[in-house]
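Sharing a chain and its predicted structure for anyone who wants a worked example. Both blocks are below, sequence first, tokens second.
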Amino acid sequence: MKTSTSERVQKHRAGLRASGLRPVQIWVPDTRRPGFAEECRRQSRLVHDDPHEKETLEWLAAAADTDGWE
């Protein structure tokens, strides 16, 4: 007997919950929206010469585990 897609999803989610996980929904900006790229450029220009931004980026680069990246 075949199971429906919703039954398979329900079973999968039940297994995840049994493993101690829970679902979380997040909302992110829609990258397809008109003006999105220009807003990214605007924000990037605001921090271009910011010393705090440079310090943060250097810290992130030092802390990042990039072993195995190509």
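Comments welcome. The mean pLDDT is 95.
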